[in-house]
Write a structure and sequence with these properties.
The chain starts with a strand and ends with a strand. The chain contains 9 helices and 19 strands. 37% of the residues are buried. The chain folds into 2 domains: 3-222, 3-Layer(aba) Sandwich (Rossmann fold); 237-334, Nucleic acid-binding proteins (OB fold (Dihydrolipoamide Acetyltransferase, E2P)). It is α+β, with helices and mostly antiparallel strands.
């Protein structure tokens, strides 16, 4: 089931949370709403869910008007960051709750809950209370509960935000696999760039109540439409007037390129980060260990830097510097 958001506006007093926002979510897709805190992404999700009413614009679900449709009639499942579990109910009863209030037959409830607990790998914890589960297990329970009523849309509001880094990584891999199995149209909110890039089919970058860019992860990373998108989706540095990614700079010893001198080196896992002083401009370059060793990099070493090109169809595998200009709208535009 598809979702269309058309020119939606939402204010809270003097604060504009959404300013003429339009988004298309394809049927069966996994779409991330990505952006900084306070940028409007959670408000947009709540408007889709029916938990907030927009001041203007419209929401279509499966092509039908849903702007003023009550939450219960939108057929959506909603998962919050902090689980919203019924503490006095077992895992089984938490997952069964939505089916019980819909007065589904006991046999149907038993089969559906058993199927979902197996799907989220919690069947052995069916009789436990939520307090007896880990954070990751409670979040899987919340997802099973949302899926129990077979919603046509699944909405997740920073579902892994309260978990530690390792559990978040495990759960986002699990969410991707789960989505590929159930194929329900899914929209999730996150401020974690790596999470969005790894999990989503499509990313909607939201900032200051507006959509900066929408597209597949590779397109947004390699061909950002604005300086904000480029900066938000990964590390950047400046080489001369060009804004580039540190891994898209080639370090040379033949004097070709922008001259500089290695200021310091740091090792982060497989990656070596070189901070190069180019006539007062600090440029960060990332290399793998093999390349850094071959160049015999060390503080004080004279080098030259060349930005290579990105997304050039005539030269596959190459990258080119992305520089900022000013478009007709006055916003920063990028020209590959």
């Amino acid at each position: 089931m598809s979702i269309q958001v058309r020119a939606v506006r939402k204010r809270f007093g003097a604060f504009t949370a959404l300013d003429d926002v339009s988004v298309d979510v394809p049927t069966g897709g996994l779409t991330a709403l990505l952006g900084p805190s306070g940028g409007g992404k959670s408000t947009l999700l709540r408007v889709i869910a029916g938990l907030e009413t927009p001041d203007g614009g419209e929401v279509l679900i499966d092509g039908l008007p849903a702007t003023h449709l009550p939450v219960r009639e939108r057929d959506v499942g909603f998962v919050f960051q902090h689980y919203a579990a019924f503490k006095h109910l077992t895992v089984y009863r938490n997952v069964a709750f939505g089916l019980e209030i819909r007065r589904r037959p006991a046999g149907e409830i038993r089969d559906r809950v058993g199927e979902l607990l197996r799907l989220v790998r919690l069947e052995q914890f069916a009789d436990r209370l939520p307090a007896q589960l880990s954070g990751g297990q409670r979040q899987r329970m919340a997802l099973a509960r949302a899926l129990a009523v077979e919603p046509r849309v699944l909405l997740l509001d920073e579902p892994f935000g309260a978990l530690d880094a390792q559990v978040r990584k495990e759960l986002r891999e699990w969410l991707r696999r789960l989505h590929d199995e159930v194929r329900v149209t899914t929209v999730f909110v996150t401020h974690d760039q790596e999470e969005a890039l790894e999990v989503a089919d499509e990313i909607v970058v939201v900032n200051q109540g507006r959509v900066e860019q929408t597209g597949p992860p590779d397109e947004l990373y390699d061909r950002p439409a604005t300086e904000f998108v480029m900066r938000f989706l990964g590390p950047t540095t400046r080489l001369g007037d060009a804004l580039v990614r540190p891994h898209d700079i080639d370090v040379r010893l033949d004097g070709v390129g922008v001259p500089g001198r290695v200021d310091r080196l740091s090792r982060v896992g497989f990656e070596v980060r070189a901070h190069v002083d180019c006539d007062g401009q600090q440029v960060m370059v990332t290399l793998d260990r093999t390349r850094a060793a071959a160049l015999d990099l060390a503080p004080g070493r004279a080098v030259s830097l060349v930005a290579t090109s990105i997304g050039d169809p005539a030269r596959p595998g190459t990258t080119r510097p992305i520089s900022a200009g000013t478009g007709a709208s006055g916003a920063a535009e990028f020209h590959p």
